[in-house]
Amino acid sequence: MLKKRIIIIAAHYYKEITDMLVDGAKNYCHENDIDYLIYSVPGALEIPTAIKILNNRIKGETSIISGFVAIGCVIRGETSHYDIVSNESARGLTDLSLEHDIIIGNGILTVENKNQALERSTDKINKGYEAAHACRVLIDLNN
Q: What is the CATH number of the domain that holds 96?
């Protein structure tokens, strides 16, 4: 069996938070002997596009990528932008997963405030770690 390899796509709009989420995903990978690559994009809306671009690039290559982990943070503000970004990034990931058979662990936080984001990106509770775990579970189901 080939070693599992994943790509972590991190939206660094809220860099302090996403760096901690990426650390959580990396920790999971280290604990479970999973190789990973990390790519950065500006915001959560760019994550589905980045996954599609990278997935198309690696098709047919000998270096197989088993799945992707999406990392980002969307914090509610005073406008409807929060609803658009959180809904459309989630829809984009779901569409990619279902329509193109791409395995994706979703670690995009959608929270009301920065404190909620920080609570979900600590060593104790880390949604990046959980997203990497979800990705691995789906990879195992697919094998």
A: 3.40.50.960
Q: Walk along the chain (143 residues) and give the pLDDT tens digit of each residue.
A: 567 899 999 999 999 999 999 999 999 999 999 999 999 999 999 999 999 999 998 876 656 789 999 999 999 998 889 999 999 999 999 999 999 999 999 999 999 999 999 999 998 899 999 999 999 999 999 88
- pTM for the full predicted model: 0.94
Q: How many domains does the chain have?
A: 1
Residue of 12, 30, 81, 100 with catalytic role? 81
Are the C-beta atoms of 87 and 48 separated by less than 8 Å? no
User: Which residues is 10 bridged to in the sheet?
Assistant: 40, 71
Any catalytic annotation for residue 81? yes
